[in-house]
Structure formats: C-alpha cells, structure tokens
Design a protein that fits this description.
homodimer, about 450 residues, alpha/beta, Laminin, Aspartate Aminotransferase, domain 2, five-stranded parallel sheet, about 40% helix, transaminase activity (chains A, B), Alliinase C-terminal domain-containing protein (chains A, B)
Chain lengths: ~450, ~450
C-alpha cells in the first residue's frame, strides 16, 4: 500500500515537472542578440549608490569592461555616495531638470529602448525627411493633451535642442535685403541670456542684439521701419511670469519661447497660437542632454539652418525621445505632470515659508490662475526663484548668496539689476534639500540684523 | 521486483527534474525591467524584408503598438520589399554610407545598447563637461589604431556632426578685429559644397566665401594681409585625391577636413598632425544620423560655438557612438576596415571594367600608395566616382546621366565644370547593383556612337 502511494506520488510529481518544464520553455522569452546589452544595462542599474548617485553604462572604466562606478550627486562622495561633504557649496545655478529623475526611475521599463548598430544608418527616413514621422505625431499629441499649443495646420521642426531652434528662428526672421540695416533683437528685461549671447557670438551681418524691448519702444530709434525681432519668453526665465509681446507693428516679428509652458511650472491658461513658438524637451521630460523643440512656420529657412548647422538630429536621440513621449502621453500626461507639479509645489511651499521669515530677501509673487490642464485654479510653481535683496546696502545679491555658499545666477545676466539673483529649483532633490539648509542659515542670520 | 524498479526509476526521474529546474533557475538569466525594450527590438529585427529593406522599432505605426512595417530600399516595394520596380531611377547622389550596414547587422549583439529614461538626464557629465570621457578615450584609441591622426597633447571636441564642427572651426578662425575686412573662405576646386553653403547662409559679418584657392593665389587681392581660411579636404570630396594646402603665409589659417581619411577609401599614408582637423562618424562607422567629429586646438571658441548652437550632443548619441567605436577598436579595426575596403574594392573593380569599355566617359585615376594601416601598397577606393563626359557636345554631364535615369551630383556644385558628375559608391548594395545595371546600359548605348 505504501509502495503504491509512493509510486503514484512519484509519477504525479514527474508529470508536474514535465508540464512545468514544457510550459516554461514555451513561454519563457528567450533573449538572443539583445542579451549582452541587457545584461550591461541591468548591471549598471543594479549598482547601489545610496540614493545619492547613479551608475551609468558609459561610466568611467566601461571601455575596459569594468563595472561602472557610482557618480555622486553634488556634495556626496565615497564609493557608494554615502558620505556627505561638510561645508559644501550649493549649486543653484543652472536649470538642470533633475527633479523629474525619480519619475523616470519608476518608469525604467516603459521608457527603455534598445538599439543596435544597424538602426537607421541613413541620413534620411524613408519619406526622404530627416525626422521620424512617429515622433512628429507624438509631439502633436502631447501638445493636444496638455493644451499648451495648437498644432493643426502648423509645421513642426526639430533641432538639436531649442537652443539650435532659437538660433534658426532668429536667423530665418532676420533675412532682409542686404542693403538694409541689421534687424534688432529685443527681449523685455529680465530675459534669458542665451538670446544675447547667441546674437553676439554668431555676429550675423543681418542681426544686432539691442537689449530691452521696453527701452526700445521708448527710444527714438523705434521708427516703425527698422526690422525688429522680439523674443517673448512665457513663462519667463528667470521670474516665471506669463509674458506678452511688448512691440507691435509691420516691422516687428515675434518669437515665442514656451520652454517653460508646461503644467509643472505654470497654469496652462490658453493654447499657444503664434506664428512661431519654441518648446524644449529639457523642460518637458527633463532630458537636458537630448533636447527637442517644435515650432510653427518660417519652416523652410529654419529647416535649412538645422541642416547646415548639424545635418538634423541623431537617429537614436529621435528614437529615445519617441519612447519618452510615448510614456508621457500614454495616460494623458497624468502621472508625469502630477508628479512634477507636486514636487515643485512642495519645494515652493518650503521656500515660501523660509522667505516669509525674512525682510532681507523677497521672492517674486504671482496670483493663482485657472489651469486648463489640471482643471482647477492653481499656483505658479516656477523653475526659478527670482530673489531680490531688499536692503539698500545689499547691491550685489549674487555675492551675498555666494558668501553663504549658495551659487545662483546674477540678475545682471538677465539684463536686470545686481540686486536680483536667480536660484534654480528644478535640480535634484539632494541639491534642493541642500539649498534649503543653506537658505535657512542665511535667512536666520539675516534676521539678526533686522 | 518490477514495482521496485518503477519506484526507483520514478524517484530518479524526480531528482533529475528537480536538479534541472534548480539549475535552470539559477543560471538562466532573468530579464526584468529590460524585457519590454528587448522584446520590442527583437520583434522589429525579426521582420523579414527579403534582404531589400528593414523594419525599425520606431517605424510607422509603432506609436499605436503595431508591428513595424518593412522600409524598402530604393526601387523595391511590397509588404516584404520583394518587388523590384521597373524603370526605377537610380539615386547615386548623396554619400549615404550604407555600404557598412551588413557589417553592423552582423555585429547586432556587440553593438547593441539599452538605455532607459533615467540615463544621464543632466546637461553635464560628472566632471562638469558635456562630453563622455570614455568616448573621448575611445576616439583617441581609434585614431591611434588606424594611424590617421596624432591625438597626443591635442584637444578633442565633439559636435552634432562634422557639419557643425566645420561651422564652429570656420567661425572660431574668423574672429578678427571688427574693423578689419571679413576673412575669406577658400577651397581648391573641386570642393565640397557645404563650405560655400554654410558661409553664405550664416552670413557672418566676419566671413566671406571667396571660392577657388588657386584663383585667389593668382589674384591681386591676395596681399598677405587679408585674413584667409583655406579648407583642405583630403581625401577630397568629390574626387578622392589626397590634397595639400594651396595657401601659406602669416595671414592664412587652415582647416583640414579628414572625413574620408579612413582605410575604406584611401591609403593611410601619414597620420594627420595639423592644427585643426575634422573627422566624421558618418564616414567612420557609417552612422550618418549620429555624427561626431574631432579636432585639435582653437578649442574654447569652438566649444562655445557648439554650446551656443546646440548645447552639446545628446547623451544617448554619445552612448551609442561609444558602443560602436568599442566594437570597431576591439580587434584593431580589422573586421570593419577589411569589410569596408573589400566592399569598395569590388565596387571599383566592377566600375572600372564598365568605364574601360567607354570613350565617352572617364573616371578619375589615382596611383596605388603604401597604406600604413593595411601594411601594403593598395589602390584608392574613393567614396565617389568623379566622372567626366569627354565628348565635346556633352557639356552637361549631370543631365546625360539623368536622362539615363541615374541621379548624380553636378560638377558645378563642387565649383567645377558641368562636364563632371559625381556618383556615390558608398550607398546600399541594392543601390550600387542598380547603378551598375543602368551604367552598363548607358555605356553600351554610348559605344554605338563611337
């Protein structure tokens, strides 16, 4: 009897094993040529850096086949980034959009893309263009979902970042008869320094940076004849305000820079419907290193600019952007925009609380507005704090912050007074936490003097 | 007895299965977050396109989750690209470097790379630069292995293609006191049209394209004072010749464009050791859509140009290039350079045979030289055939070929006579086979008239 039971159990077990093996073999996916890259990526991703750094597949030593090392966030050090450096100065200068990194870490699977050496080697896509049609589609879809731009019957153009597209736009609009004086490039103070830097560096015979749009409007050179290009940044960098064009007239052309017109930073009050609008991937998904821009009209000249300046945009970059934007639009943007907005809202709440204790420093103020995206009245949560040093003697605000070990960007860079300094709020959580620590010290110290 | 055997066998089988399952679970690699991307890539790669096309992960419809369709080579059609179109004109115009595609298909595994959304989101690498250190290392290694450039004590700079770097170089060298007349940009005929197009399009106040370097040397404007920039393309585009600078003097600056100085196209006679040299990824690995260049000196100004024109190069592009060049250098370049050279050698043998039957058309001729890379005397196997129409009445060679359904590029584009036409030989095998078919017809027809 016992033996019979044993045989039966054993045979049943055998059957279970056979089924298990057969089933597993038929459903387990079997990687082939993709395996090496996958192991490489999983290895890098599995390196533990204490939450204060990451290891990347192309980290130092990867050429020699070493496991990539941790690359630590600012002020962290050690093999696993677990050591916090004492008295380390905070970097609050550039708008490196790492506040979205935790979102992409969570979306590691859905945003992953695998390419091999034979992926799209040609200069052109099958339709003869140098831009992926699927990418163009997903960009239009994104603007539709967010409601920040009308894309129907508009051209979409891609560049190596909105930096390149800005140069292309300004260049395209400055084409005038060669005998005419150069077109003047204007922006209202405070403005993003790139406009000035590009115009001065590229020293086109047809373009001259002239500075503040308000000053130009009042000046006697403003004659309704001289060709003028105004760049309108809205929300504005550095102060986050929604801005309108200052200049109008038959001689005025306008470039709208909407890099920050996303629900993270600002209520979406109305879809952009301008002749020429620029958007930037860096402030959409946070991918600073693989930027994209879109805009409408003056199409051919800008396309030629992009071709002549860099022969279009790398194929793998286009592929990655497609994959990222697919993730973004898949739920109508719900997850990423909520995550990003909540993150910035919390940061602003913290910041406002600190500055409310100070008479020495003040922040820009904005009134809440109705946001068509979130379907509610909401605060502005700009990328940057635009801080004013209120004391008469504090003429150089940048230096005051620098002495407190906080590196911002001087108001002067934005065509404004040195009494202002811009602090970036969209960097990594570590950078922000560190910034808050240092600000608390500075503000409490400041309070002693009140 | 039988029962005992049954029990024993059954139990042994049980053990075998258990060991099998345990062993398999511990050694089978278990994909996790990388799985989706891998399946996607394998699916696209498995689409069969009859050898006359490929399907890509970002093909049409990929946004809607469809299996990507075949994208057929020129003149092929049908769902699986198996249909050859009758009377289809040949494209022999652009230098789309698809001749290396079969190499990368074979290297699918080694050249694959997997990135997820959180890969290097920052503008900068950990060292504060916008260029991957490993990438810079592998580029220096590549030049060392090939022996086509000395990189010791030289700067390496990266751009969105050598197109961007060319503009950056010319711009950097044209910086002169603003009161001086603009620098003249020169190249000896026949020259690559991009030089002229960029200079004219970007219309810098400090630069003017002046045309042929030989003509300038003879002209009375050549005064040893006017600032001059000569671009020397070697091997030359369109004719594949090794070229030297025409102009010398204290007022002359030289940019060396070595885009074609790779063993595929030319004997490597001596390592480049110039002040400023440009290389291009498109003619190194064949990746036209993700170009890179390197050069030496005038570093800071060029870096600023790249920053201001496109904020550096996309991170995934840098990662892919690193992966590609790792494959290239892994065996000292043996496999890729041999494959590429053999391919072009075969193409030139076929071409020479056809043209040898014709008095109507002639090809450029070059003498074999010793190649330091292959360690032997070898032919030039240029990217392009530089064809001359020899008959007096055949004044427009481009049109003669176009009538025979071969689209080349007119000699006029290169500052040369219309009696020349350039035919690209580095395109896909399908394009080349097709070109040969049409050339045979043209040449045999031409023979009737002799």
């Amino acid at each position: 009897m016992e033996k019979k039971l044993l045989v039966t159990v054993s045979i049943i077990l055998n059957l279970v094993f056979i089924i298990h093996i057969l089933y597993n073999n038929s459903t387990t996916w079997n990687p082939t040529w993709t395996k090496r890259a996958t192991v490489e990526a999983e290895t890098a991703a599995s390196v533990s850096c204490s939450g204060h750094g990451r290891a990347y597949v192309d980290g130092l030593g990867s050429l020699d086949g070493n496991k990539p090392p941790c690359e630590c966030n600012n002020c962290y050090t050690g093999n696993d980034c677990s050591l916090l450096l004492q008295d380390c100065p905070v970097d609050a200068n550039s708008g490196d959009p790492l506040f979205l990194e935790p979102f992409w870490m969570r979306q590691a699977e859905r945003s992953a893309v695998l390419v091999s050496g034979w992926h799209r080697m040609s200069y052109i896509y099958q339709d003869g263009t140098s831009v992926s049609k699927e990418l163009e589609k997903v960009i239009r879809k994104l603007h539709g979902v967010v409601g920040n731009a009308i894309t129907e019957n508009r051209f979409v153009i891609f560049g190596s970042g909105s930096t390149q597209l800005l140069a292309a736009a300004v260049h395209a609009l400055s084409f005038i008869e060669s005998s005419s004086p150069p077109a003047r490039l204007l922006a209202s103070v405070p403005f993003y320094a790139m406009y000035k830097e590009q115009a001065e560096f590229f020293d086109s015979a047809h373009l001259k940076f002239e500075g503040d749009a308000f000053a130009w409007k009042k000046s006697e050179d403003s004659d309704n004849v001289t060709q003028v290009i105004e760049v309108v940044t809205s929300p504005n960098n550095p102060d986050g305000m929604l801005k309108r064009a200052v200049l109008q007239g038959p001689n005025v052309k306008t470039v709208h820079d909407y890099a920050y017109y996303w629900p993270y930073f600002s209520p979406i009050t109305v879809p952009a419907d301008e002749d020429l609008s620029l958007f930037s991937l860096s402030k959409t998904t946070g991918h600073a290193g693989s930027r994209f821009g879109t805009n409408l009209s003056v199409y051919e000249k800008m396309k030629r600019y992009v071709t002549l300046s860099s022969m279009g945009v790398s194929r793998v970059t286009q592929l990655q952007v497609l994959e990222l934007l697919k993730v973004v639009v898949s739920d109508g943007g719900d997850e990423i925009f909520s995550f990003g907005y909540e993150t910035l809202k919390k940061r602003w709440d913290t910041l406002n609380k600190i500055f409310s204790m100070s008479n020495r420093f003040s922040l820009q103020t904005t009134k809440p507005e109705y946001c068509n995206y979130f379907k509610k009245v909401r605060d502005f949560t700009p990328s940057y704090a635009w801080v004013k040093c209120e004391r008469v003697e504090d003429t150089n605000c940048y230096e005051i912050f620098r002495a407190a070990k906080i590196t911002g960007r001087s108001g002067k860079v934005f065509g404004s007074e040195e009494r202002f300094v811009r602090l970036s709020l969209i960097r990594s959580q570590d950078d922000f936490d560190h910034l808050i620590d240092m600000l608390k010290k500075l503000v409490s110290r400041g309070a002693d003097f009140i």
